[in-house]
Specification:
The complex is a heterodimer.
Chain A: H1 2-26, H2 34-50, H3 52-77, H4 83-89, H5 94-125, H6 128-132, H7 138-168, H8 177-205, H9 208-222, H10 234-240, H11 244-258, H12 263-297
Chain B: H1 3-15, H2 18-38, H3 41-66, H4 72-78, H5 83-105, H6 107-113, H7 117-121, H8 127-157, H9 166-194, H10 198-210, H11 223-229, H12 233-247, H13 254-285
Helix pairs in contact in B: 2-8, 3-5, 3-8, 5-8, 5-9, 5-10, 5-12, 8-9, 9-12, 9-13, 12-13
Classes of the chains: A mainly alpha, B mainly alpha.
Chain lengths: 304, 292
């Protein structure tokens, strides 16, 4: 009986080894493995579901970061608006202006902190090196991670938006929901490229907190989240347009507050965002591949 | 190492004691933390640039609504039209508070993550020296950040400081550190019990920062928060620190601020220390010190 069991077990092992060997023998390197991306996204979402408070906390915490700005602006200009603000921004309510900006900032924050740092977290869990010896394109893994982060960020961003609307008494019009979704989608796709670039940099520099904090603060400062671009010096305004979210914030804010946008300008914005997507994906994949190669050559993949 | 030498070291360790020994241990911990930070080259850049990047968005948001370096609305709340100096000083001080809350509050967790907490706990230093030592590092780190941010604000944003107020402002920092250390002890308890306590620390520190008059006077807060704000050491310290740096020795209502700060300090440090002592003992009795 025992001999029969052992031989069955051996047979199963042999079959499994054959499947793996055949897979490896037939394996052709691909640019993208969608199945691997899906598996990685599901794995990350499964982990996220285990900690549901994280989504809630990340939806509510930004209110504690946004509130000081609104309180300071109220102390400087009085409640709600100022003549100068209306003149430079074209909007008469800085609360409305800022809340929608912070809603989009959630995606910027996620692309910098979550997508870029995914491999670092794998490194902390001790699974980075096993992951890197799998015959799967790294970009598939990153894309899977980015997709799961987008799902979580969208939940948090809506918690933030609705809580802030209730707390600060602001409302938006959602008549132009289609164009808003289109612009947001383009922004998210372009941020994937941005996140790939950061992931490559984090592989090289290791300590992600400092790098991500620096980039996050710099991006936040030049983005029209709490204040309009017009208050920035000209070179900073130029730099702002190189960030995937700047155009998106401007267009989505206009659509959410007024419900209208000039068609020609809208199409121009869509075209510009498509260019940004191509630019950041090319740059992101190149930086990531270089970072991976650099780290492998030095044998510091699993090092801290 | 020969037996005679190791015996000598052990004898010295057994005999060690007193405040000087604890100070030496705290100093060694502070130096160790500097070494760790400087082993990451980006940390140095971060340290220099961050005070600037923290203040800049506040400055831009203020500019977007004020349009000039003065505001008459601001004067009705604070008695000064110079909102830039007001925010620059408050924002600089908040850097120190954040450094203390985060750096010191997470000290145990950091040591635990790198696997050195139990080793540190078996050294003959007092348990709370680990927290005080990290605090010493963060006062140096955060203090240098305050100096950098104030220098940037004066050089690039037109903030004006009264140099006669620098020494008394340093006295306020000393009093502030004592009160904030009480909060940090409480945060350390949360980290020891909840392990992944960063979420709670983030919420607690943000709440303390929101109710403090850092970039706005507490008059713009809802009445209930204004009342809560009066019980925070951060409120009185930021107020007194800024008053000295803006008005020099002729600071209005400073005696009230200092007396309130001293009373709050005594309360916070006593409660914080007691909480820490009991929590640390409890966690060790459960054998959960090194658990993740």
């Amino acid at each position: 009986m025992q001999t029969k069991d052992t031989s069955l077990l051996e047979e199963t092992h042999r079959q499994q080894a054959d499947i793996a060997n055949n897979y490896l023998a037939d394996f052709q390197p691909r640019m993208m493995d969608w199945n691997a991306a899906k598996i990685f996204a599901v794995k990350n979402l499964r982990i996220a579901i285990r900690y549901p408070t994280n989504v809630l906390i990340w939806g509510l915490l930004p209110i504690l970061w946004l509130a000081p700005y609104l309180l300071m602006m109220t102390a400087v200009a009085g409640p709600g608006t100022s003549e100068y603000f209306a003149e430079v921004s074209g909007f008469d309510d800085f609360l409305k202006f800022a809340v929608i900006g912070w809603f989009i900032f959630k995606y910027i924050d996620a692309s910098i902190w979550a997508i870029g740092n995914n491999f670092r977290w794998e490194q902390f869990s001790g699974t980075l090196e096993p992951l890197f010896v799998t015959p799967v394109p790294r970009i598939s893994i990153l894309l899977g991670a980015a997709f799961s982060d987008t799902v979580q960020t969208t939940l948090s961003a809506f918690i933030l938006l609705f809580t802030a609307m209730a707390l600060f008494g602001v409302t938006y019009t959602f008549v132009a929901i289609g164009p808003i979704i289109l612009i947001m989608l383009l922004m998210i796709i372009s941020f994937y490229g941005f996140g790939f670039m950061l992931a490559g940099m984090i592989l090289v520099f290791k300590d992600p907190s400092v790098l991500t904090e620096l980039i996050n603060n710099a991006v936040f400062t030049v983005s029209p989240i709490t204040y309009p671009l017009q208050v920035l010096p000209a070179p900073a305004r130029f730099a702002a347009y190189l960030i995937p979210s700047t155009i998106a914030i401007v267009v989505v804010r206009e659509l959410a507050i007024t419900g209208t946008y000039d068609l020609f300008q809208f199409l121009q914005s869509v075209g510009f965002m498509c260019v940004i997507i191509v630019f950041f994906w090319t740059l992101g994949i190149a930086v990531f591949n270089y970072g991976e190669k650099w780290t492998k050559n030095r044998g510091s993949m699993g090092g801290f | 190492m020969s037996n005679a030498i190791t015996d000598g070291i052990h004898e010295k360790m057994i005999k060690r004691g007193g405040i000087r020994a604890e100070l030496r241990a705290a100093n060694a911990l502070a130096i160790k933390q500097w070494r760790v930070e400087f082993s990451y080259p980006l940390s140095v850049l971060y340290f220099i640039v961050m005070p600037f990047l923290w203040f800049l968005p506040m400055f831009l948001a203020g500019t977007a609504v004020a349009g000039s370096p003065t505001s008459s609305v601001f004067e009705t709340y604070t008695g000064t039209t110079d909102w830039i100096t007001f925010i620059a000083i408050g924002s600089a001080f908040s850097g120190l508070a954040m450094s203390l809350f985060w750096g010191t509050g997470m000290a145990f967790r950091r040591e635990q993550s790198v696997g050195t907490l139990e080793t540190l706990m078996t050294t003959p230093m007092k348990r709370d020296t680990l927290v005080w030592g990290t605090m010493l590092h963060n006062v140096q780190h955060g203090g240098l950040g305050v100096v950098l941010q104030l220098t940037f604000s004066v050089l690039f944003f037109g903030a004006t400081l009264n140099l006669w107020g620098v020494l008394p402002a340093l006295g306020i920092v000393a009093l502030a550190v004592i009160g904030m250390q009480g909060i940090v002890f409480a945060m350390t308890c949360i980290v020891l019990l909840a392990k992944q306590g960063w979420m709670i620390i983030e919420v607690i520190s943000e709440v303390f920062l929101i109710i403090a008059p850092i970039s706005y006077p507490i008059a713009v807060l809802p009445p209930i928060l204004q009342f809560v704000s009066l019980g925070s050491p951060l409120t009185w310290s930021v107020d007194a620190f800024r008053s000295f740096l803006m008005y020099g020795l002729a600071t209005p209502a400073v005696i009230q601020a200092v007396v309130s700060l001293v009373i709050i300090d005594v309360l916070f440090i006593a409660v914080g220390s007691l909480m820490f002592r009991y929590t640390e003992r409890y966690v060790r009795s459960k054998g959960a010190l090194e658990q993740f």
